[in-house]
Amino acid sequence: MYEIPFEKIKRFVEGTGARRVLVEAPPGLMRYAEEVCRELEVECFASAMPVFGSCLVYEFFPADAVIHLGHNPYPWWRPEKPTLFVEAFSHAEPDLEGIEEELKGKKVVLGAAVQHLKLIGKIKEYLRGKGFEVLTFKSRGLEEGQVLGCDYRNLRRGYDDYLIVAGGRFHALGAALYLQRDVLALDPYTSRRERLDPKRHLMKRMWLAQRAAEAREVALVDGHEGQSREPLLRALKAEAERAGKRVSVYKTLILTKDYLLNLPEEVVVVLSCPRLPLDDFGDVEEKVVLSPGEFRASLRGLKLYAFPF
Description:
Layout: H1 6-16, E1 20-24, H2 30-39, E2 43-46, E3 65-69, E4 83-86, E5 107-112, H3 120-129, E6 133-135, E7 161-165, H4 170-179, E8 183-186, E9 193-196, H5 199-214, E10 217-222, H6 230-242, E11 246-251, H7 257-261, E12 267-270, H8 276-279, E13 288-290, H9 292-300
Helix pairs in contact: 5-9, 6-9
């Protein structure tokens, strides 16, 4: 189902001279991590740590080099240890018949998760044959048309519609919140199409931001490696303190709900992974949990709401 370039991986390992290799993979690619280890002629082990993106490469493990499956390099950080990012392009081929009837207008911006970037050409050709103008954009650190769960710069505003190609609703929901408008999601594994309107989510997120505006104590939770955002941390801390808030700073590798609920502050701003407030802690009622962009709006005014940063 996925392309794993074993020969490229072998050449990388040989080129680094590594004698011990770590393979990282998200849950859906774990069986490929074991296959990679079996193909290599050096000591190799697979990580059982959660892999959410290329923002985290567990460099503290005792390995000379890292093979990271399922992502391309993170736009805002690079690991120090020799690391090969393997996109693991998907072989999924969605049925596009009739999708043109679900799009609004004729100018459509196309975005895809990294595993499905090879579908962009096929989708463009199909929709252009139906009379659509299909656009993809490229931003620093991203491939043309690529969307990350925390980076939607390739989705330029002001077009008739947006088609997001990714498994499930994760990328499409983030795109809808980023654009503050509805998008059409296409799941290439099932060919399912779904129109996602973020209004309900936006109402809840803005309500939480308003609650944060009234709070006096705030926790800023920063992360590790590519999830360590020191300039953003300093800026948010300074702005919150100017607004009269008492700010505590926490550092974490993995943030769990149990740990979050035991923080003494009423408001928790997650800098490490801005998707956690929405996807993992969206049902938390005991605290206000915000992304950096949402917290900034609580300080400056809800008209400046932004997701995720």
